[in-house]
Amino acid sequence: MQSPISDSLLPFVLVRFENGGIGELPARLDTVLIDTERMRLSCVWRATLPMHPSVRVLDARMIDASRIAALKYQIAETSRPIVEAPHG
């Protein structure tokens, strides 16, 4: 049985803050659910957000692992500041 999602897709969260900043947060694997009757595997991913600055928009995305470097370069070239939010 072939998976509908490529092995190279990784989840992440793009955060747009009220102050205009943009940040990327990694999504970490939290829970794996295995349904043997339906032959289905489900993964729950979690990202931790900072309390400040206030969040305006969250955008959960999947990205091909090979595009991560290109995305970081594109974000670095924008005129808005990039905020690296602490998470843990």
For the record, the count of structural domains works out to: 1
What characteristic shape results from the CA principal axes? Answer: flat
Discrete helix count? 1
**Major beta sheet summary:** 3 strands, antiparallel
| Spatial extent as radius of gyration | 16 Å
Order of helices and strands, N to C? EEEEEH
Write out key terms for the chains shown.
3-stranded antiparallel β-sheet; two-stranded antiparallel sheet
Would you write up a description of this structure?
With 88 residues, this protein is mainly beta. The strands form two sheets. It has a three-stranded antiparallel β-sheet with strand order 2-1-5, with no helix packed on it. The protein has a two-stranded antiparallel sheet with strand order 3-4. Strand 3 (28-35) and strand 4 (40-46) form a beta hairpin. The protein is flat and about 50 Å long. The chain has one helix spanning 68-76, and strands spanning 9-17, 22-26, 28-35, 40-46, 55-64. It has one domain (9-49, 56-76). The protein is built from one helix and five strands; from the N terminus they run E-E-E-E-E-H. The longest helix is centred in the last third of the chain and has 9 residues, at 68-76.
